[in-house]
Design a protein that fits this description.
homodimer, about 525 residues, alpha/beta, six-stranded mixed sheet, four-stranded mixed sheet, 19 strands, about 45% helix, about 15% strand, globular
């Protein structure tokens, strides 16, 4: 990758590229999390084996639907499945066998090689919220998202130390035609940030555009040999694979690009009301989806996804940060590890309309369970509000700060001589204090996680400064970050080539808002 | 216990007691949590053995101070410790051996036997915030706490489904003289609630008063044979046991009442800046404290306590919901289980001045880690604000609602035939939905945790109703709960005897505010 980047930069060769790199502020980005703590295993072996056996029964007896996709049916038929209309019934063990060619982990390359991420194993890669049609901030309230908002979120993600990934549709830029949106979104990720990103899945042709833009950014050969996008293909639970999402998956798999194969489940509506039943369905769906990706191209990188919320059975509203969602997230992690593929779940989930205490309780519950569940790729890890309808600017930086807590937790506990601190305990003795002792002086700088947002001031100071709540502090931080944003350097030839591609594509078709 | 309660009720024998019970609203209280999920074990055996060996080295080489307490020094000398002034050096293994008579779990009886709790094992008992000199609510702001506030918190705790325990000093009633406060506080717990509670520790004589009031409430013989109070005796870390706390512990141990032996540590100030070092000191301190309780009375019930926060090394402020505090809480749980005694830690900790998003992030982090760490008794589980300086009314009910999440998480995952839900998956099939299916109808009522506070309404409804944030919703809930409070029935003779005891005690000494 380092070589590839040098090549890219070398191509332009001019002083402009070097000037751009020199003037760029160096933004600190933490390395993706490499867990040094155990995963939380909520299911015992008996439960796991029952769920796995039941998932095979579902695939065999009930089957899954591949809708409006004759080529998919043909692939399945050749692989040995029983095809009945659009229904695909998969003999016991076949789906799991097909999944065995999927890599257990893969590298997603960023254009800045220092920001490439390894997805899988004990790692956790954090990406921002995905998909909200609305944005909110304290000043402007709730409103339809625009491309200007989108760009701001990409900049904030670029400047957030604990975010490893720029994400995808951080909000829906509703002021751009639907059929051209993906071009502007990709352009933003590619030029305003140097972190890895996601491709478009709203139409197979847009997935193809995403691949072609990556070929400009990374070089055509590099893209075919390496993974440079991780994209989100949802399953229409229960057990339905539509032609749009599968069409996008086909494009990505053929081009060696990663897809998250992700059931989208509101428990009690799209899956049974019980945790074990939901896990069974999730596993059956993911087995079918990942198996299909391997039929398209064996060894294509994939992720076992599980987007699961519980439901308020009175109102039908999806609910977040609940115990049942946590149970499913823990259990699905175990199933993913047994399948030997990376796992995507959790996020800064909440149902609240405001970035208030409800939002924070629900989010903290969800983030903590994501870390403990062994999630490898956490989409929505910051900025999610109102059940995902809203991307909130203040909550984005509030959540992003809490992602630092996950980094700290995952470090685990050192117990070398320095960490044992016996000399310090001997030095201080009963009744003393450690603030000035040698061990504290030597270690305090890295001993504790530091917030960049929260208030630790004495009450009187805090009151004098206006008694600001978290949202108010976050508003100020959003403003400061955006004011200090500096675009990462990029080879001007590449930038020009990307702009030309986008302009040409846009000119090739009329605007469409459907 | 059922027998004991019948006896108490029988004593008054009158219609008044029966009338009082008949008219009382039946308030639902959840049973204490019996975990059906694993504990999170962050330390490996090697780390645990090193920490345990180091703790013995500290006790042997450095020792601990028992201050202004010649009787304690004499007890230690007789047990085989080396006494040098007030310094007690404990030979390797002695403290752990003495701890072996401490029970691994015990029942704390409530006057309502249905609300007795078993502390230890896989259980988790939840008690409210303890100790704040200030209270806060949205209407009145931050102010010194009064007895009126105290009574309100006891009522709220009584009405909170997920609180198993009435706690102790839920706030400091600063309008009552210091030397008489404990009498009014105990009277409130005994008469306004029927949940278990804590005794006074601010002076040995006040501990004795607590025992005597319990003898009136439960019967003298019952108190000597059963545990009816769990009280909080802090260690002045590092390694100092003062005469007030130890005097209270002596009273309680002699009377078979439980004490939490609890280092009070702001990491980097009262303990080394490293997690392993802090755990070593915590273990040494708890070993010494519990061993001492067993010298006073073998088999006296005790709890391994750990109150640990991290510190902001810039300002010196204690910080909450941090990764380092979580590491210590997880590790201390493992040490307590290896010692074979119940474990107290965690709570609704936060540093925020308001019940805002910061408060909720920090609190949710702390509550989740408390559940996962295997905590058996969680003091401060709701209502804590501003580093424990403030008991907040809104946060009390906000946190108390989140305690329901812990109950749900701890239930674990069922995987019987009904939970497997294979019939439902077969019935619904690809593309269907589960809202109306037989399995959902049969199970939805208990399938999901239900909030009694948070907002799940559609955006438009929420906006029409005033766009209320969590704190505003909580204000309304506090008001509703207090308006609907009904005192639990009590034998009027017992109530009169308690009132007479308090009046006599108060008359026996002048007011003191020190």
């Amino acid at each position: 990758m380092a070589e590839a980047t040098t090549r890219r930069r070398g191509r332009g060769g001019g002083g402009a590229a070097r000037r751009a790199e020199r003037t760029a502020v160096r933004i600190e980005t933490a390395k993706y999390i490499e867990r040094n703590i155990p995963n939380f295993e909520i299911l015992n072996d008996e439960a796991l084996e029952i769920i796995e056996a039941n998932a095979e029964t579902i695939l065999e007896e009930v089957g899954v639907n591949f809708v409006d996709n004759p080529a998919a049916l043909e692939r399945w038929r050749e692989a040995g499945a029983d095809i009945d209309g659009e229904r695909v019934r998969i003999p016991r063990g076949l789906a799991r066998k097909l999944c065995s060619t999927a890599p257990s982990q893969f590298t997603q390359h960023a254009r800045n090689p220092e920001k490439s991420v390894v997805i899988g194993g004990r790692n956790l890669v954090l990406a921002p919220v995905y998909g909200p049609p609305f944005v909110r901030d304290a000043q402007g309230g709730r409103r339809y998202a625009t491309m200007d908002d989108f760009n701001k979120f990409v900049k904030l993600a670029y400047m957030s130390k604990w975010l490893h990934h720029s994400g995808g549709t951080v909000c829906e830029p509703t002021d751009v035609p639907v059929n051209k949106r993906h071009l502007d979104m990709l352009m933003a990720h590619m030029t305003l940030s140097d972190k890895p990103f996601m491709g478009s899945v709203t139409d197979p042709s847009r997935a193809q555009d995403s691949v072609e833009m990556c070929e400009i950014l990374f070089g055509k050969e590099f893209v075919q040999e390496n993974t440079v996008m991780t994209s989100l293909t949802n399953i229409n639970s229960p057990m339905t694979f539509d032609d749009v999402m599968m069409g996008a998956l086909e494009v990505y798999a053929k081009n060696n690009q990663a897809c998250i194969v992700s059931p989208f489940i509101v428990g009690g509506a799209m899956a049974p009301v019980s945790v074990a039943g939901t896990l069974t369905q999730v596993l059956a769906e993911v087995l079918a989806g990942i198996a299909y990706s391997q039929l398209v191209r064996p060894c294509a990188p994939v992720i076992f996804g599980a987007f699961v919320t519980s439901i308020d059975m009175n109102s039908g509203a999806p609910t977040f940060g609940t115990p049942e969602a946590a149970h499913i997230t823990y259990g699905a992690g175990q199933l993913a590890r047994r399948l030997g593929v990376p796992y995507r779940s959790a996020g800064s989930f909440c149902g609240s309309k405001l970035p208030d205490a409800q939002a924070a309780y629900e989010t903290a519950n969800s983030l903590n369970m994501g870390l403990m569940a062994g999630v490898n790729f956490m989409l929505h890890s910051c900025g999610w509000l109102e059940g995902g309808l809203v991307a909130d600017f203040e909550k984005f930086v509030m959540d992003a700060d809490q992602l630092g807590v996950l980094h700290g937790l995952a470090r685990g506990v050192a117990y070398d001589d320095n960490a044992q601190a016996m000399d310090a305990i001997r030095e201080v003795g009963p009744g003393g204090h450690y603030l000035g002792c040698a061990h504290t002086q030597a270690n305090f700088k890295d001993a504790f996680w530091k917030t960049e947002l929260l208030d630790y001031k004495p009450f009187e100071t805090w009151e004098e400064e206006g008694a600001r709540d978290t949202r108010t502090l976050a508003s100020a931080r959003v403003e400061t970050l955006l004011a200090n944003y500096q675009q990462p350097g990029m080879d001007p030839d590449v930038a020009a080539a990307l702009a030309a591609y986008v302009a040409e594509k846009k000119a090739s078709m009329p605007d469409a808002f459907m």
